[in-house]
Amino acid sequence: MNSVLTVNSVSKKYLLIDQPFKRLLSLLVPTYNRTAQVFCALDNVSVSLDAGETLGIVGRNGAGKSTLLQIICGTLKPSEGYVDVRGRVAALLELGAGFNPDFTGRENIYLNAAIYGLTRREVDARIENMIAFAEIGEFIDRPVRVYSSGMFVRLAFSIIAHVDADVLVIDEALAVGDALFSQKCMRFLAEFKKTGSIIFVSHDSGAVSQLCDKALWLHEGKVMLEGSAKQVTETYLEFLYGEIQGDIKVDSVDVVEYEQALEAWYDPREELLKSTKYRNDIEIAPFDTAAESFGTGQVKVADTCLRDEHGRKLSVVFGGAVVELEVVMSVQADLNNFIVGFLLKDKRGQVLFGDNSLLFKPDGYSVSGDNRYVAKLKFLMPYLAQGEYVISLGIASGTQSNHVQHCWIHDALVFSCQSSHIIHGLFGTPVVGFTLDVVN
Known about the structure:
Elements: E1 3-16, H1 20-28, E2 37-50, E3 54-58, H2 65-73, E4 80-85, E5 89-92, H3 105-115, H4 120-134, H5 149-160, E6 167-170, H6 179-192, E7 197-201, H7 205-211, E8 214-219, E9 222-228, H8 229-245, E10 249-250, E11 281-284, E12 293-294, E13 299-307, E14 316-318, E15 322-331, E16 335-346, E17 351-356, E18 365-367, E19 371-380, E20 383-384, E21 387-398, E22 403-417, E23 427-428
Parallel strand pairs: 3-7, 3-8, 5-6, 6-7
Antiparallel strand pairs: 1-2, 1-4, 8-9, 10-12, 11-14, 11-22, 12-22, 13-15, 15-19, 16-17, 16-18, 16-21, 20-23, 21-22
Helix pairs in contact: 3-4, 3-5, 4-5, 7-8
């Protein structure tokens, strides 16, 4: 594939000068800079982007994400290294960037579009589409200084969506928009990535997994990891929990003796008509005790599986069936506010749905050390589109918003859907009834 962006060994350094006269000295006396403290916002960052590829960038505030984007867009020069961009880059960075507050929205469209290289005639041909996309009504002819942050985003995104860019750069500014407009933007980006390239920065790892082919994790100006969006966002999640709880990485799940081999797998396909076109076969792989995980280690999972309403362990489940997620675990210490939950994700790591035991007991359960427990969560398996899926397990203590992870297993159950009638959306749910009545 052709590369549209190459960031090669880029660093950005700033001199930390606390008083104005010292800054003047640094300009007049070059050797004075040697005594100033240096802050490195980016340290030897390299990444490339191919045509039609989408790159997600994750990291905590201050990690260097915005600095990297500004260097890519050309509004900031690197201290070392270089950036090679082929094609037109359009960016949605800081709110109001590139806007004249005294100009109307309409006037700012012409101003911004000219910055991106469009002629006035080209803008004349597109301005009505830009205005319609922004959906800000009569405010289009009012000064942008009276705009809310949401209106700024609407207008700015509408402009970059209509300038025939080869690369779109989207910073976290998109998060301030309302839900309907955010969904509209995500639909546009999903369509744009068929022909163009995108650099997408977000704290929402689900959005990164959904939209991006690969991801880059920055921390304190350095590249911590580059890889698939799923791999990077999951590793970043571990890091965030580690920051809260300390070093919680568990190299592997310790195997707890369990009589797995004594229980035969049951395949319910024998009871169904093989000719039905609505059958949604979902094949389940056995629990892998070496699945990647992290946590305090105070809870160890011995086995997890799906069972049917008769308690039979399933190797295949069908969309629309009631199933029970069973988790067999040993607890090493007394724990209060105990929580067991799961997330169902697609192969890109995008969360489709999930739940936890707080639904049944908001203050959590209490468990005692040196005991084995079996947790069961019953739910309706949705109809899934063809593809690969995983269930991630989370066992914690605390509250929904503030908890300690004792055992998180990324890919506790892996399963594959080979046939499906789902053609729209991520998944479907059983329709329980339909009526058609004449009303006079």
